[in-house]
């Protein structure tokens, strides 16, 4: 095949040596990507063809180029590993001899061909072990140690090591069936006796060159992953430790030691582990020198070894009580690695490796019985106090100058590293308890009151960060140092963003404590309000204010005017991004909830008026993208304010706290309703211009939805107005958000006599509009169909009387449901199944429903059976099972008849199920009228049969 000439169609070419070579030429050198792809496809077929046995040996001829030789060796491996069953047993020995010969020939290279040949022989050995080729590894060692064949000894030695290295790797990835895996693993375990002396001899020989020793270490790494017993590799591990002095061998030696120590089986060999401890401790000098000279790779490697020993075996080593000093020395060595100088991730990457060790050690100590635990805590509590100091030192920011030179990726890695430190501190608190907080408080106090040596902001920030890490997730209300801490906070001279952020988050973490000690609010609130004006502190200051307003709202009335004024100012200056503006509005909602009604109204008036004026202006303009964003922003601010502004609800308090009594609601309309009524006409104007835009419609619906959810029955005065507006909106342009809001209204007001007429009218209107949409083709609107089905289900749940109305076409709604069951979108199908499970129980008490199910229930059953037969995703089978269960419970006699009729059809619901299987399914379903879980199991079984997946690994996903 010449370059540029299209390949023959893959089927028409014979699998001969010449054609393989042409295709390989095309694959490597043809610039045309389509030709490359055709060649690739054809070569894959060639590799698995019967002819591969002939051509692969020819492709390995010495005169061929290495790409062609490589393909020959790969084809051999493919045939042996995947098509073992095709090879007659009498050819095994010939194949073995040929492979040995080829490996000897390629011992001096090319390396890529040698490796593929070794992998092929490894695959052969795994398939023949143990019966057909006992002592395979011993034979490999013997063959390659024999003199002759004109191949130099070093090349033969390297080829043998390559073969021994790929053998365990090939075992890990091989496709051996489960019972064979166990046999072969056992056989390989016995063969270790032939590998060990060879590796030891090569490592100990004075004249072994570095590259051979490196290969030996790689080979050891590969074998220990087979769970070679640790006591059997002990001698080699000592050689590995010796090899750590040689920079050329350092990396491979570390890998071998870490792999050996980390094998799950190794904890059984306590005596060997105890011998390893002093060997690891001897590396401390090398570690110190590496740290001093800034050799990060060496310090990283030694740290990996110490952590592997400590993390995997802390329990076993702790239990050797008489050896406690050795283990404590190892713990201190790991502490040195945690506190390694430099800033992570720029000048060191080692300290993060140690964090899980501290978790593991603590878990192991805390899991001992009380007496033993007390002994260990005496030794290790001081260690953990030291750890806290080390971690807080590592969490410190670098100098401003250095930090500004970091890349954004380095800053992000450092942020994540600090979160890991924060998690570790929180964990350590379980061991050290309140004493840890006192310890941090004393340090911070000394730092802030020491006038002689002014401290760096980094030092202060790290101590506060430690405090905040603990206070954020652990209830610190009982700690007596918090008042002191709150007293210290105003003394901190905040001249830096990172420090200011941490001060904010610390105050936020103490919000619940402040609710119990409101007298302290006056010392921290001014700091938070001051920070609100700084865009760089946006997230921390706004989230802290929100926490304080939520937790302490009953103590905030004296500060309310000030908080509202500052918030208004920052909102008008547009200091914060959208999401922070929304949080700020939620904070104000919490704050206003605790004020008397006239004050709420006064504050709302001053807060909202500027936005209302802006909205009036925007409503007059011709719609365009920028005023759309402004409108959505203002509507968002209002709905976030109304989300939390709740004057009636009793506070949910923590366990054991006395419930807070809120004043009974004052007579007169709810403040939110007053505001909504004032802006209602304006919102209608905005809507009329933006009805086509689903985002604006969604933002309008969100205001009312949040208000209805928060106010519940207090929303009553707005019901008829809103129902009318919703009806007009939906009739003009149907949108899912309008249906969701209608559902909320039905949920709360449908069962109230006063509000039933407007709700009924709205429900009938949106139903008839949606039915029209179904006639025009609902496929483009899965979201509307989803919301519509949820609305119908809600109506059936709250007020089934709605289905008695002569203005509601129950039959049409039923048919839309049957159609919706066939939608490809899972959420829509789920909502539709919910609709039917709500509908069927009303067959007896709501005549229009009973009638339509009687007449058309068979259509519903057919749709359900189609879905189970393979039309719908398997993840939805539980929902369809619920519909079947409801049919069986409420329409038993009909169901028996319908099942019989539907399942008579040839090939329905799937050609894979027999008549007997269908009959069994019918009988099983009809028998279960009480046990819903059993119906789900029956449906799952049947759907697997219908899909031809029964008993396959795919079925196991269930």
Characterize the structure shown:
The protein has 44 helices and no strands. Residues about 1-10 and about 650-665 have low confidence and may be disordered. Helices cover about 70% and strands about 0% of the residues. The protein is mostly helical and about 950 residues long. α12 runs parallel beside α15 (about 295-320), α18 (about 370-395) packs antiparallel against α20 (about 410-430) and α33 runs parallel beside α35. The longest helix is centred in the N-terminal third of the chain and has 27 residues, at about 180-205.
Key features?
958 residues; mainly alpha; 44 helices; 71% helix; disordered N terminus
Short description:
With 958 residues, the chain is mainly alpha-helical. The protein is 71% helix and 0% strand.
**In angstroms, what is the radius of gyration?**
38 Å
Q: Overall 3D geometry?
A: globular
Fraction in beta strands: under 5%
Largest sheet: none
Regions with little confidence, pLDDT below 50 for 5+ residues: 1-10, 650-663
How many helices in DSSP terms? 44
Question: Mean of residue pLDDT?
Answer: 90
The total beta strand count reads 0
Task: For the record, give the distance between the C-alpha atoms at the N and C termini, rounded to a whole number.
Answer: 50 Å
Helix content: over 70%
Q: What structural class do the secondary elements suggest?
A: mainly alpha
């Amino acid at each position: 095949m010449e370059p540029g000439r299209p390949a023959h169609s893959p089927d028409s070419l014979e699998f001969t040596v010449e054609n393989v070579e042409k295709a390989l030429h095309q694959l490597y050198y043809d610039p045309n990507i389509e030709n490359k792809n055709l060649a690739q496809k054809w070569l894959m077929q060639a590799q698995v063809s019967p002819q591969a046995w002939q051509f692969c040996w020819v492709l390995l001829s010495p005169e061929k180029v290495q790409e062609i030789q490589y393909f020959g060796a790969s084809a051999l491996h493919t045939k042996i590993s995947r098509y073992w069953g095709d090879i007659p047993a009498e050819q095994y020995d010939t194949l073995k001899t040929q492979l040995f010969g080829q490996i000897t020939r390629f011992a001096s290279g090319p390396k890529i061909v040698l490796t593929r040949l070794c992998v092929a022989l490894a695959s052969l050995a795994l398939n023949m072990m143990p019966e057909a080729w006992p002592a395979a590894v011993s034979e490999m060692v013997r063959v390659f140690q024999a003199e002759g064949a004109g191949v130099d000894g070093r090349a033969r030695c390297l080829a043998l090591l390559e073969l021994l290295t790929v053998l365990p790797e090939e075992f890990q990835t091989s496709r051996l069936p489960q019972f064979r895996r166990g046999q072969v693993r056992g056989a390989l375990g016995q063969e270790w006796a032939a590998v060990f002396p060879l590796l030891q001899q090569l490592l100990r020989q004075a004249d072994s060159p570095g590259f051979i020793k490196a290969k030996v270490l790689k080979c050891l790494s590969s074998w220990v992953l087979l769970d070679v017993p640790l006591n059997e590799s002990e001698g080699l591990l000592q050689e590995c430790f010796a090899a750590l002095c040689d920079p050329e061998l350092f990396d491979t030696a570390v890998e071998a030691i870490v792999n050996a120590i980390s094998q799950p089986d190794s904890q059984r060999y306590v005596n060997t582990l105890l011998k390893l401890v002093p060997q690891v401790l001897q590396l401390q000098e090398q570690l110190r020198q590496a740290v001093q000279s800034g050799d990060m790779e060496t310090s990283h490697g030694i740290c990996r070894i110490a952590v592997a020993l400590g993390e995997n075996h802390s329990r076993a080593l702790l239990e050797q009580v008489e050896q406690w000093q050795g283990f404590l020395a190892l713990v201190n060595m790991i502490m040195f690695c945690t506190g390694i100088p430099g800033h992570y991730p720029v000048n060191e990457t080692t300290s993060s490796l140690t964090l899980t060790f501290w978790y593991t050690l603590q878990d192991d100590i805390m899991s001992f019985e009380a007496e033993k635990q007390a002994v260990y805590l005496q030794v290790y509590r001081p260690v953990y106090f030291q750890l806290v100091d080390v971690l807080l030192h590592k969490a410190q920011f670098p100098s401003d100058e250095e930090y500004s030179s970091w890349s954004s990726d380095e800053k992000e890695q450092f942020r994540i590293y600090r979160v890991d430190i924060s998690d570790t501190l929180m964990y350590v608190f379980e061991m050290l308890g309140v004493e840890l907080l006192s310890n941090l408080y004393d340090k911070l106090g000394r730092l802030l009151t020491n006038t002689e040596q002014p401290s760096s902001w980094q030092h202060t920030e790290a101590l506060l960060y430690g405090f905040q890490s603990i206070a954020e997730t652990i209830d610190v209300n009982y700690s007596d140092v918090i008042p002191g801490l709150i007293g210290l906070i105003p003394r901190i001279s905040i001249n830096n963003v990172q420090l200011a952020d941490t001060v904010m988050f610390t105050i936020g973490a103490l919000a619940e404590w402040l609710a119990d000690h409101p007298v302290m609010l006056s010392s921290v609130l001014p700091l938070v309000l001051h920070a609100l004006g700084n865009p760089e502190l946006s997230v921390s200051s706004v989230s802290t204010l929100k926490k304080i307003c939520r937790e302490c709202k009953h103590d905030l009335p004296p500060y309310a005017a000030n908080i509202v004024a500052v918030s208004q100012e920052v909102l008008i200056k547009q200091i914060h991004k959208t999401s922070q503006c929304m949080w700020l509005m939620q904070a104000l909602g919490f704050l206003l909830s605790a004020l008397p009604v006239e004050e709420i109204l006064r504050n709302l008036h001053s807060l909202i008026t500027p936005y209302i004026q802006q909205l009036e202006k925007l409503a007059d303009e011709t719609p365009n993208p920028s005023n759309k964003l402004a409108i959505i922003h203002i509507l968002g601010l209002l709905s976030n304010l109304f989300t939390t502004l709740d004057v009636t609800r009793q506070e949910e308090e923590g366990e054991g706290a006395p419930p807070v009594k809120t004043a009974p609601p004052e007579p007169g309309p709810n403040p939110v309703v007053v505001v909504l009524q004032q802006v209602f006409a304006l919102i209608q104007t905005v809507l009329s211009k933006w009805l086509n835009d689903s985002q604006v419609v969604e933002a309008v619906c969100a205001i009312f939805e949040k208000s209805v959810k928060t106010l519940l029955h207090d929303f009553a005065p707005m019901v008829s107005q809103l129902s009318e507006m919703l009806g007009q909106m939906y009739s003009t342009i149907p949108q899912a958000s309008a249906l969701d809001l209608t559902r909320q209204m039905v949920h709360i007001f449908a069962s109230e006599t006063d509000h039933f007429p407007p709700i009924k009218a709205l429900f009938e209107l949106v139903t008839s509009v949606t039915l029209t949409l179904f006639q025009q083709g609902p496929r483009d609107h899965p979201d509307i169909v989803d919301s519509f089905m949820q609305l119908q289900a809600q109506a059936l749940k709250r007020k089934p009387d709605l289905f008695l109305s002569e203005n509601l076409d129950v039959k049409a709604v039923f048919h839309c449901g049957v159609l919706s069951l066939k939608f490809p979108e899972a959420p829509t199908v789920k909502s539709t199944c919910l609709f039917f499970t709500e509908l069927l129980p009303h067959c007896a008490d709501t005549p229009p429903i009973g009638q339509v199910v009687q007449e058309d229930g068979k259509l519903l059953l057919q749709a359900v059976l189609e879905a189970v037969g393979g039309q719908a995703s398997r993840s939805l089978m539980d929902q369809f099972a619920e519909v079947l269960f409801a049919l069986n419970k409420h329409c038993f006699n009909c169901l028996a008849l319908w099942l019989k009729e539907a399942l008579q059809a040839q090939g329905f619901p799937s050609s894979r199920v027999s008549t007997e299987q269908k009959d069994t399914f019918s009988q099983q379903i009809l028998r279960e009228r009480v046990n819903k879980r059993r119906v789900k199991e029956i449906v799952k079984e049947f759907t697997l049969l219908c899909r031809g997946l029964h008993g396959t690994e795919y079925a196991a996903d269930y």
